[in-house]
Specification:
Number of domains: 2
Strand content: 25-35%
Largest sheet: 10 strands, antiparallel, barrel
Number of helices: 7
Order of helices and strands: HHHHHHEEEEEEEEEEEEH
Distance between the termini: 49 Å
Helix content: 25-40%
Shape: elongated
Amino acid sequence: MREAKLFWFCFLFLSLLHPPSVLFARDDDPKVLKPGTVARGENSPALDQAVVQTLQKLDRILDDIANPEGQKGLFGKNLNATLTNLRNLSATLNQLASESRPHLRSISQKLDRLLTKMDNGEGAIGALLTDPKIKEDIRQTVTNLKDATASAKDVLGRVNGFRVWWHYLNRYEPQAKASRGDVGVYIYPREGRYYYLGGANLGNPSDEPRALDYERKNLVDARLGWIVGPLEFYAGLIRSAGGIGFRYKPFYTIDILDRIVLLGEGYDFLRNRTIAGRRFDHAEYDAGGELILHRMLSVGIRVQDLQETKRTQYTVRVTFEDKDIAYLLGLITFCAAGTKGRSSSQ
């Protein structure tokens, strides 16, 4: 009885790899081939073209392959169920990302176990794969699936990894009797790193100043920043000139006091121009501090242009998160990764 079961399991598994085009028939059937007759058969498409199209179904199949119960015929039954029940693809991208991560981890682990058993000749799979070519083909297919799940895990992680914050900074300068507005957006592709793009000192250049004002209007900010513990460092365009800056929390580990932030910037290192009748030929350095009242609101004071005019400014900073743009950026990343994958396969 045991040998009969093993025979049928072997037959079903080998049929899956190379299904024959000639089926069994009765002895009295005129279509039965006579001894010595040569029959030409056609092979079905390669095994890798029939790989299950959904992660959850692949998870079930691999579970049966690696599990001894697979020797009792459950592999064939589950494969048939998998091919007739496609996964519902109407879930949102966020739901797909969160639901797929456990399956991706499980698939990767089971693929590792399966490859180990194949190499060691363990279980039904290892015993059947005595043909080196078949064994290598299946091993390569499983390896490709493992690489694909790792890539999918990385892409799905990036979909939810984006965070976007709008930023507005109002700087009031008593000496100039004017307020200046800086508006921009912080894009965090992952924790500890961000891109900032915005405009500084926005306003109508035709407006007449109420007092002596050396600030230029409508400048560009474009920076790349890193955050490591209490220190934030950034570099790029600061008010349309190359520069660097930092923000530092000196009491990072102390409650309440961790709301205090020190800041400094240096930019426009080759400055050489005349503004409102005054010559400027030194780099611009700013320094100051802020107090975080709320994660969305900060107030502070800073001294603008320490080497030249030394003008005091009072600041109010407002930031708020935009999850819709973050989701859109994640979706774009997901689609771009899919396009790149299709191009590579072609």
